[in-house]
Amino acid sequence: MPLTIDLVGEHIELLPERAIRIPRLNALLLSDVHLGKAAHFRAHGLAVPDAVFTHDLDRLASLASRYSDDIYIVGDLVHKTHNHEWERFAALRATWKQRVMLIVGNHDRFVDDYATSASIDLADRYDLGPFHLVHKPDDHRDEDAYGICGHEHPAIVLSGKSSQQIRLPAFVATSRRFLLPAFGRFTGTHVVDLEDEDRAWVLVDETIIAVPPRRLPA
Amino acid sequence: MTSRSVITDWFLRRNWSAFPFQLETWDAIVAGKNGLLHAPTGSGKTYAVWLGALQALTGSGCKVLWITPLRALAKDITEAMTEAAVETGSGWTVGLRTGDTSAAEKQRQRTKLPDALVITPESVHVLLSTATGTELLSRLQLVVVDEWHELLGGKRGVQTELALARLRRLNPSLRCWGISATIGNMDVACDVLFAPWTSASVESESSATSSTTAPASSTTNVVRITAPTGEPPEITTLLPDTVERFPWSGHLGTVLADAAHSIVTSSQTTLVFTNTRSQAEIWYQTFLDMWPDLLGTTALHHGSLDSSVRTWVEDAVHDGRLKAVFCTSSLDLGVDFAPVDSVIQVGSPKGTARFLQRAGRSGHRPGVRSRIAFLPTHSLEIVEGAAIRRAVETRRVESRQPIEKPIDVLIQWLVTIACGDGFTAAEMLADVRSTYAYQHLSDAEWLWCLDFITTGGASLGAYDDYHKVVLRDGRYHIANGRLALRHRMNIGTISSDAALTVKIIKGSTLGTLEESFASRLEEGDAFWFAGQCLEFVDIKDMTVRVRRTHRTDGIVPRWGGGRMPLSTELSDVLRDVLHDAAEGQFEGPEMQCVQPLFQLQDQLSRVPRRDEVLVEHFQSNDGYHVVFYPFEGRLVHEGLAALFALRISRIQPQTFTMAMNDYGLELLSDRPIPLDEVLERGLLSQTGLTDDILASANGALMARRRFRDIARISGLIFTGYPSKQKRPRHIQAGSDLFFDVFTTYDTNNLLLHQAFSETLTYQLEEERLRLALQRMSERRLVITEPPHFTPFSFPIVVDRLRERLGSERLEDRVRKIVAEMEAGLS
């Protein structure tokens, strides 16, 4: 179930597929897919189950067919090397009518050569309505509008009784920018420290749960 | 080949005469037998086997492989073997090969092969991962496994088993000798070591009378030789003048420091063993504060100190330059220290074998008996002095259980051999199943492993570009040289946690700290390490940079690794000792000393008999307490506490604070605990136990932690190349990520299953827990309702408070509680 929140006066839908929608702007946003990572590992003899990639691709396909929104990928669409995962993504992209834009991330090195043929627009940063899209939060400047960023792979640690802890991927909204969770499932997470005024929503399987401030670690 | 007379002449020149067990071993080796020599350290076991080899073997090339668990031991053994080889004029040379051996030395060994090679199990695997190494090892005539008892209980033991099976495949007439100290299950130790020689899948050379299923020890080709054990050590317990009736740890120690000091001053060299590295640091500091004149003749030795520091200390002990060394298990093994004439054990001995091993570090001169003093850290622990004495007298030595079927080690092994000569499936399966560890490996498990290294498990087929092991002309080989190089760098099963080097700015390297401790330090923080107070500056490139300081307010680092529990055997003896005390028998100085404590325990509650389990149920300002006393060791109590908490809260939802030690466990709640009801409704039941254990202890989290080592051993993650710059970052992923994707996308992954089964077996000790529950339900539960804490419960309570309060506030609080209770008694 999507969860609607309010962000600088816009209604935003948080989707359990690890993406967000801005219905008024016909925009679907996600980041850090890291296409090709599993295949890259496998080519180096590390047995990552490649169902993890199929699962990512299936989620992309399902989002693109459910919503006709333009798709904005806020960086790190690909991981490192060109391999079959890109080709299968490009084949899927060919079936989509909507526009796809990639805000280039630090991992998107080989994309230049392939983006045009896959009809993907490239930009280093992009203003979308009241939002400014840029991959790295560090590249989000003071003079820019409220940011939507990737790169961090944010996760939140929730502590339960008897010192049990669980680490969950999350959407995070600070006063200056919104952090998207990594879309790819084989990407790892980075625990972010929340300030008092920050809000966060964790992903538990197919559910999105708002983190009550008091449950945050001191 | 060297004749017997040359050997005995050499003995004569050194004023030695061969022991009967040495003669027996020589004869057996000359007769071409396999054997297990059961001999303690310092008994001349090396000469028994090595001089036997000199008498028995001829030919060129590397003839003897001497496998030893410790790098430090390897160097000393090489020296001792070389000396004997030279002085007997055998013309033999001895090489050393461990992870520390330089490339130049390895090159020399390639061009001029030594007659014998001293090596660690990991280095044997590295040799087998190259064609030249395999060639070298294929001409071996004898393989010796030294300190087999040390290897047996761990994954390095399994590594050794696999190597032995392979070496025997390379040369079917290869002989094997094991050397082991006393353990409780010598028969099993023997069966495991010689499984490849007796297994049905390898042609047995033993006589027709032995059936294929007969254990090795019963076959005529394996001889067992036992060296006579010397006099048992002289055991004393250091006792306080008056015994506190409410014992608590971390307190009695300093009272007894004087007694320890007089042992140090009246001995030539004393080794003071502690149970943790932090304790060694604290005791060293306490000693120097109390007796500054010991500065310069006192040293510290533990596993986190830099090897240069440790080597210096070892040499100084050798040369008799030190009066006392505060040490941990880092000095349990090793070459004999002639000057050491007394040993002190601070805190619970934990196990008989360990205690004897430590005692044996003293008295290595003719006619000198080993001496060990036990220094209890709280008054109830004094009882363990009586227990350990009884355990030593009745030879209740711990067993070591061999590890069964670790999938991670097997996967590493298959890739190792794929890097070397390669293998055929049929031959390799036969070899693997000829080991004890994998004798029950199923066809499905075997195929899964083979699939994992060749196709990477669950795969997309056509698109896939998985590269690791490939099948060429019926043999499995590594796919390319780069993968082989990376694999060799990661051979081994010893886990090394992320450790940061501690270095004085513009000064020397002192040792290592765990990342978890180092990351909490801030600039200007002071901590004690390597016996000095250091001020933290910063962390740079995996190095903690510090400067020396004269401050004394430093904190003492904690190193992980967990606290060792009391062994099953010693727990058992302890229950006997308590039974006697309950019957009013207070024999020996320890029990006489603690008699007032037991009288109070009996007055307030009860001292349990052998057929009883004591449960104390009472209320205090903190809430409602239930304390169980199974006397089963800390780890089992940890499991029981979590299990009981889960089962009670199912009947009446409530949360608990849990605390435990080696004797018992406490559940504390802010609401009354319906003890009778939960007992009636199956608190101790065996039904659904495995699920309850996993659920109660957060087994998933534990399995996730266990999986770190498994992922590393099986090659999913690597710790990097020795030159740290070359860490292949682009294929680094944390073990957590693998754990997650396997859990979600590959639930049949055997490495994942291994993480859970290891958690149950080794971490939660499911078997011991099950037995403990059974024992508890077979005995009579005696529930008492004491007015407040008892001598038995107090140490547990203090440990619980310690977690919350920190040491200074703890001391005040504890004194207050004790004063109140003592006042209530009078």
Summarize the structure.
By secondary structure, chain A is an alpha/beta fold. Chain A contains four helices and 16 strands. Chain A has one domain (about 5-215): Purple Acid Phosphatase, chain A, domain 2, CATH 3.60.21.
The major β-sheet of chain A equals: 9 strands, mixed
Number of helices of chain A: 4
Q: Could you say what the CATH architecture of chain A is?
A: 4-Layer Sandwich
Mean pLDDT of chain B: 87
Tell me the helix content of chain A: 10-25%
Secondary-structure blueprint of this entry?
The complex is a heterodimer of chains A (218) and B (826).
Chain A: E1 3-7, E2 10-15, E3 19-22, E4 27-30, H1 37-43, H2 51-66, E5 70-73, H3 84-93, E6 100-103, H4 112-115, E7 121-123, E8 125-128, E9 131-134, E10 146-149, E11 154-159, E12 165-173, E13 177-179, E14 190-191, E15 199-204, E16 207-210
Parallel strand pairs in A: 4-5, 5-6, 6-7, 9-10, 10-13, 11-14
Antiparallel strand pairs in A: 1-2, 2-3, 3-4, 8-9, 11-12, 12-13, 12-15, 15-16
Chain B: H1 4-13, H2 20-30, E1 34-38, H3 45-56, E2 64-67, H4 71-87, E3 94-97, H5 103-111, E4 116-119, H6 121-128, H7 131-137, E5 142-145, H8 148-152, H9 155-170, E6 175-180, H10 186-198, E7 222-226, E8 234-237, H11 252-255, H12 257-266, E9 269-273, H13 277-290, E10 298-301, H14 307-318, E11 324-327, E12 340-346, H15 352-359, E13 371-375, H16 382-393, H17 407-419, H18 425-433, H19 443-454, E14 469-472, E15 475-478, H20 481-489, E16 499-504, E17 509-514, H21 515-518, E18 526-529, E19 532-540, E20 543-548, H22 568-582, H23 588-604, E21 612-620, E22 623-629, H24 634-651, E23 657-660, E24 665-669, H25 675-680, H26 689-696, H27 699-713, H28 735-745, H29 750-763, H30 766-778, E25 780-784, H31 794-805, H32 807-825
Parallel strand pairs in B: 1-6, 1-7, 2-4, 2-5, 3-4, 5-6, 8-13, 9-11, 9-12, 10-11, 12-13, 16-20, 21-25
Antiparallel strand pairs in B: 14-15, 16-17, 18-19, 19-20, 21-22, 22-24, 23-24
